User: Fold this.
Amino acid sequence: QQPVQSPQAVILREGEDAVINCSSSKALYSVHWYRQKHGEAPVFLMILLKGGEQKGHEKISASFNEKKQQSSLYLTASQLSYSGTYFCGTESGSNYKLTFGKGTLLTVNP
Amino acid sequence: NAGVTQTPKFQVLKTGQSMTLQCAQDMNHEYMSWYRQDPGMGLRLIHYSVGAGITDQGEVPNGYNVSRSTTEDFPLRLLSAAPSQTSVYFCASSYSGQGIDTQYFGPGTRLTVL
Assistant:
């Protein structure tokens, strides 16, 4: 089942903060975050693993609540370059199948 | 390194035609995958492979075949194209250990089936 992302869209002014949430009905092994700009391929941001290990960009932070099967991506002091669609992908039980949410469209204005 | 390459970038097919979308990576990644992306639907996994000779179905495998004869290549075959297969197709690769690692995506193939 597809994870649910919220909000579906958010508009920020440069310098503002945003939180994007990802929720699954299944027990999760890992949560992956990607950003996609219009007409381009998705680009890796973060991986959060069951047990607390994280891997990703220094300027991006995220959390993973294993008990609630939820993850949140925190974008602080947003820049124009942060604009794009953010996708979370979830993997259950280390099964090598990543299921992506429908995405959150983030627009950062000057 | 070229990373993940996909050919062609654009393709128009008629209903019933077959074709192969090519995907290659030069990072020696064990894991490779194919996704399709439709407006408002996110990325949906079609097939994946954890190594040469090993493939498995994803979320939406019907109408597609894959094979993995080498570590580098992972072609996706459309057997008999249908308008419902109009989409943008992305290939991705990553290291694999216990689960999927960072995926590197190719630039995509935009397919239209008339």
